[in-house]
Amino acid sequence: MSDHSHRSRSWISLTNERLIHNQRLRLAMVNMVVLALIWAFLSLFVYLVIRQETQSAIDAKLQQYAFQIISQQMLFSDPFAGAERQINQDMNYSVWLVSQGEVKWIQGSAVPQFLLNRLATLASSPGNAARFFNDKQGETIYRIYQQPVSIMNQNLIIQTSSDIGPEIEVLERLLLLFGLAGLAGVILTVVGGYALGMWTLRPIMKAREREKDFLADVSHELRTPLSVMQTNLELMLRHVDATTEDSLEWVEPLYKETTRMRKMVDDLLDMAKIDAGMSGANYLSFSLSDVCEEVAMLYEPVFTERGVEFESNITEGLSMVGDGSRIRQLLFILLDNANKYTPKGKVSFSLLKKGNALEITVEDSGIGIRADMLSKVTERFFRADVARTQSAVEEEGQTTRRKNSSGLGLAIAKRIVESHQGKMTISSEVNVGTSFHLRFVKNDRIQKRKSVK
After folding, report:
1. Residue 333: which CATH number?
2. pLDDT tens, residue by residue, 145-165
3. Residues 6 or more apart in contact with residue 54 via CB below 8 angstroms
4. Are 409 and 426 in contact (CB under 8 A)?
5. How many domains does the chain fold into?
6. pTM as predicted
7. Which of 163, 240, 341, 353 is 20 to 30 A removed from 70 (C-alpha atoms)?
């Protein structure tokens, strides 16, 4: 058994760190929204219930006081008797005489002039039913109850009123308290949800790590037999004689498929290592300009041979912290992608410095990618369509069909970019071309991997 199975699996890759961070934030936000809605509903419900109960209690007191005034008036043969007699010190009352369509105040407690004017207006309003009114004057709010009554053939209007400002103030404070408590609850929910998110996601992340470990193990174990098969087939093809030449039609396709499978297994192992943060790379400062120049020099004859114009614009003296071999692999993937899907036209490759960022662009005038496929081309084993993965290119009357892509190249490229805390943007238009834009912010160091405790 190789040492591969004994490797440390306690590391979380940068990709998984971001995934965990995003999922924890998402859980915290969902909890916040749910709690905010529940709290808002319950707070509003409790507030409305308390407000209604408070108003009902005030209205009941006003009605009861009005009945006491009516009972007092009925004790006398003259409805004008008993003037200035105050029954309830916390409430005001007024008695109005209605005669020939006019109202006249006959008795009541002392009230401010503005309230007396308002009571006179209400008493003059038509209507024979008991009613409640609210009247606000500045910071003072009055609740008014008015009831028409007939005593000793006299039509009277009994009004009782009370200053409900203190009750309104208590209700407003209660509403403010609900709001502050809700805000504090939301903040605690976000903090608590984010803190507990790791505990919630731990089983999922463990399953994800086991899946990646399995992929890495299988890829590693398959490399040896595939290498042996490839080597023996290659030796067989080298030692072909007249007696075995007829068997080439079976051996050569087998060799090609073995080579393609070996490449796919290597890609799977690379992806597993990058996902697991176990590439074994040391992130050091290296010359990005030199790496880009090297890759451009290697690919220039490839494009020239196919009649595709290749243009490079690489700024000298630019460096970054990271894994130079992985960045080199990244550039190979992008230029190979441009080579595959640009039967004719032009491919541009540039490295520029913009502010505190280094930007790499690979742009081609190839067959392009459909808009609905752009967000999926960096997924593992994704193939846009037959026209893109098996593009037929007419060259001097011969149809050259490209080999099937493994669907892993751009997925690996995306993970390399993310492992260097960069960003990859893809834009494309069918039959116009595709552009890959990479942006790396210059850092003195790459964030250290965090271990799973």
Report:
1. 3.30.565.10
2. 998 988 877 888 888 988 888
3. 167, 171
4. no
5. 1
6. 0.49
7. 163
